[in-house]
Write a structure and sequence with these properties.
547 residues, alpha+beta, Beta-Lactamase, 3 domains, five-stranded antiparallel beta sheet, PPM-type_phosphatase-like_dom, PAS/PAC sensor protein, Bact_Sigma-Reg, PAS_4, phosphatase activity
């Protein structure tokens, strides 16, 4: 809705009254306010008129303020209460509200001197609220940068008018990753300042309040007015211009320290006209910073583990062995979430007798242990296949026995296939240990799922090394395509295995005319969500002309 006209100037008595006066329309949009109300809100009149009361004081929702305003609207009579002014002030006031013909007038009379114990309790409640907010906002992700960027939305507007959140890397370099301004119209200005200030500070040799806070590990409260203190450590240029336009009256910097190191930095600022940061503000913000630092460092450490595990996985997934008789394509796509690093793998290697083994497998679990177990199983199977050439069922039995004998305590599904060149085509022999069957696509026909005939599915690896294992043989001819995949391609929380398999067969049939590499890309693009929940491994083989 358009901002209302502020109307004629307030009477001199109201304008100079040492109490905050607000006039609201029927929708609780600010129509008028006096100088004290402008000071308490911490923003100029132009940024307040036309805004709803709840946007100016978001923590008033559901409070006694709401109750008083509702009573006036319902009864048409004056009402009042003694209450704690909504954050960020957290001071006790006497509130009086009355209908004025155009809406509701509100008067706030500070009573801090009479309510020191209640004000202290209010500050304690505010600290608990902030700490709870940090836990709720930061515990929802294990990505360090996402976690720390959310912090600015917790602190503004409760503790400051604007906030910058900074990461400190292992080399001590600072990088701004989050920013929030209480005034949406100034968000772009704050973003521009965040993008330019670090390069300006580096050009000045790093002699800044940020460097001081990182080096000492203690909060730094800037001299007032903060805009002059900040401008003094910035070189001439856009960063200094943006700082002056933001015009902070007070500011403080809080290091985010966890496990003996500074992992980040928070810059909090308040506009001119608002009181500066006192020791109680610093203590409250420091408690929030301590909680945030631990969440950030946990995310950083988990990210390191995830990168190591994923790197190990990719290093083990070597390029597949090729053959003049067929083309082989492989794909591996990790899960989008760091918490979902898993044990999917593929392999394709030659045996001494001239055949080629294809392997696809999935270790049960989604953590670094699953990734490590995947490496063990892959290497065990390779060694067994090279030392004692055997069919797919025999190799899975030998692998199961080796897992039991060597104490590899994990469960896994796997499908092993063997390709033997023949004069009339390529013989495919395969056996599955609880793994989805291969998909076969023949020229001019739709895709079908291959299984082991009428036999019950064989057990997973790691359950019973004495279990009997079965296989199936199939002669592949020129143009035939076989696809091996892990269940991440067809199964997820909102889609069962049967539905996913049907979608896979349909997609393979529709894209039958594509080259093998293009077919793999099309399947991943069409069947997977933008952020896959599980790892996906894929091996595709297309038989060429016999000769």
């Amino acid at each position: 809705m358009p901002a209302p006209d502020p109307g004629p100037d307030l009477p001199g008595a109201l304008h100079s009254l040492p109490a905050a006066y607000y006039a609201l329309d029927g929708d609780r949009v600010l129509r008028r306010l006096n100088a004290e109300a402008e000071r308490l809100a911490g923003r100029p009149r132009a940024h307040l008129l036309g805004r709803r009361w709840g946007d100016v004081f978001p923590l008033a929702a559901g409070s006694q303020v709401d109750a008083v305003l509702l009573e006036v609207a319902r009864t048409g009579r004056p009402a009042g209460a003694e209450l704690l002014h909504p954050a960020p002030l957290a001071v006790w006031c006497s509130l009086r509200a009355w209908p004025d013909g155009e809406g509701t007038s509100v008067l706030l009379l500070p009573a801090a001197a009479r309510r020191a114990p209640e004000e202290a309790a209010g500050r304690a409640a505010l600290q608990v609220q902030l700490l709870a907010g940090v836990g709720a906002h930061l515990s929802g992700t294990l990505d360090a940068e996402t976690a720390v960027a959310r912090l600015s939305g917790v602190l503004v507007p409760v503790l400051g008018d604007w906030c910058l959140v900074t990461l400190v890397d292992d080399q001590g370099e600072l990088r701004d990753v989050g920013h929030q301004h209480v005034d949406p119209d100034r968000q772009e200005l704050l973003r521009a300042y965040a993008e330019t200030r670090m390069s300006s500070l580096r050009a000045r040799g790093g002699a800044s309040y940020a460097a001081q806070a990182v080096r000492s590990g203690r909060p730094v409260v800037l001299p007032e007015p903060a805009v002059d203190a900040i401008s003094a450590v910035l070189g001439p240029g856009p960063a200094r211009d943006h700082a002056r336009a933001l015009d902070p009256g007070s500011a403080m910097l809080l290091p985010l320290r966890a496990r003996g190191r500074t992992v980040g930095l928070v810059t909090l600022a308040r506009g001119r006209g608002r009181r500066g940061f006192d020791p109680e503000d610093v203590a409250t913000a420091s408690g929030v910073a301590e909680r945030a630092a631990l969440a950030l460092d946990n995310a950083r450490l988990y990210g390191q583990q995830q990168r190591i595990a994923e790197g190990l996985q990719r290093d083990l997934l070597t390029p597949p062995a090729q053959s003049p008789r067929w083309q082989t394509a492989v794909r591996y796509l990790p899960a989008a979430q760091a918490t979902q690093v898993g044990g999917d793998w593929y392999d394709a290697f030659h045996q001494p007798d001239g055949s080629t083994m294809l392997v696809i497998g999935d270790v049960i679990g989604h953590d670094t242990r699953a990734a490590a177990a995947m490496g063990q199983l892959r290497n065990l199977l390779r060694g067994i296949a090279f030392a004692a050439p055997d069919g797919p069922a025999g190799l899975l039995s030998r692998l199961d026995a080796a897992m039991a004998g060597l104490g590899v305590g994990t469960l896994a599904t796997a499908l092993v296939a063997r390709l033997d060149p023949r004069p009339d085509g390529v013989l495919l022999r395969f056996s599955s240990a609880g793994h989805p069957g291969p998909v076969l696509l023949r020229p001019g026909r739709g895709a079908v799922l291959l299984d082991e005939g009428d036999e019950e599915p064989d057990l997973l690896l790691g359950i019973d090394p004495a279990t009997a294992r079965h296989g199936r043989d199939l002669l592949l001819r020129a143009g035939d395509t076989v696809l091996l995949h892990t269940d991440g391609l067809v199964e997820r929380r909102d889609q069962g295995l049967d539905v996913g398999t049907a979608r896979l067969l349909d997609a393979v049939s529709r894209h039958a005319g594509l080259g093998l590499e293009e077919l793999c890309d099309a399947l991943l693009r069409e069947l997977l969500p933008p952020r896959p929940e599980d790892d996906v491994a894929l091996v595709a083989v297309r038989v060429g002309a016999t000769g």
